Amino acid sequence: MDEKNREDWLDRQLRETAPYIDDDGFTARVLQKLPVVRSQRQSLRAVILLGITVLASVLAYVVSDGGRFVSISIERLAMLPMLWLFALALGCGILVMAGGLIAAIFKTKEVQS
Questions:
Q1: Residue 48 half-sphere exposure, CB side, CA atoms within 13 Å?
Q2: pLDDT tens track of the chain, all 113 residues?
Q3: pTM to 2 decimals?
């Protein structure tokens, strides 16, 4: 806890001092020597990814007999007893909640680092 107070004090001291430390033009010279950033064609990449996605979706639809497996799965799900549907919904909810909790824990650890 004492270390956290020292970090806060140091952070406050650094923020309250001069906003710019004169480096006699060092930063400007370094920035001038850096290579020029080339603009990449992001639109071409987006078109390629979108085209591949559409092609894969159409291929999956054709291979799966026009999406017939979806209607068969819905029919099987409708025939399940109510208790099984409740258990399935509860299990899915627990899995989603656990995934969200794990993601939140990892995000909190990442922010603290």
A1: 5
A2: 567 777 778 777 777 776 677 788 888 899 899 888 776 677 888 899 999 999 999 998 888 888 788 888 889 988 999 999 999 999 999 999 999 999 999 888 877 76
A3: 0.41
Distance CA 69, CA 12 (A): 62
- Residues 58 and 52: their CA atoms lie apart, in Å, by 10
Q: Are 61 and 67 in contact (CB under 8 A)?
A: yes
Residue of 74, 15, 101 whose CA lies nearest to 7: 15
Sorted by where each begins, the domain ranges of the chain are 81-113
